[in-house]
Please model this.
Amino acid sequence: MASSSDEAAIANMVRAGFAANPVDLTVGRPRHTTVKHLAEQLAPICAAFDTTQWGGQHGCLKMVLGGAKFWTVAGDDSVPRSPMTRPATSATFAASADDTAKESARKDNATLWREYRLQQAVNNIGVKTVVAAVDTQYKDQLKRPYLWHRGLTLFRLLEHLRTWYKVLHHEKVATKSRFMAPWSKTPEAHVKTFGTQLDERQIECGDLGVTVSTEDKVLHFVQQMYDSDLFAQKFMDDWEDSPAANWADTVTHFATDFDKIERG
Model:
């Protein structure tokens, strides 16, 4: 189990990270634009806290985005969606374990505790940060007697703020149109850049309740590859005969050939 000094050091580190990057006040009823801006301010703060739990360079970004959206951003569906649970108080090992195995188990347990403490600190301080930035009536539904906002996660708080606004029809149409924009509207973009753009715009659509499936994304992407006239007919025929198994492989398949094409 992590020591009390470890816990205090982790909390101080997280508190300093949030203090160095203050978020803007959200005045009045939350809107899509203001909650999106708040999440965009929180994201790099949380991503800066390194963890082995959720994809290395992305740090604690998952705690802002939630599991499903994080999968899209990180491109790693092996990342667990659920928060970490409280680790065992002490390491366990077989009766036959030698000293090396026991020490390894103790180190692993200590690492789990540091990661868990980090998760708790980011949630607790992140929630306090958002609570301080939002007008009272838009957060008090989540306040519990005596406990206030204790135990509330940062992701759940952001999801609650999203319930306060209504997404208008024209906003949904505009967002879907952005997703469907042709590759040619992003001049000089590499295939992988276009793929990342579609990932980001799929997330935007989801935030506004516009359903864009992975199949929709693949169909639009591949159609743009056809429309570009950059790829040899045989390459496209081979694709039709044996398409990639998933979205990531689809992007990689076309990006690899794109890098071989001489463009004037």
In short: The two ends are 61 Å apart (CA to CA). The CA atoms of residues 48 and 59 lie 6 Å apart. The chain has a mean pLDDT of 86. Residues 169-258 form one domain.
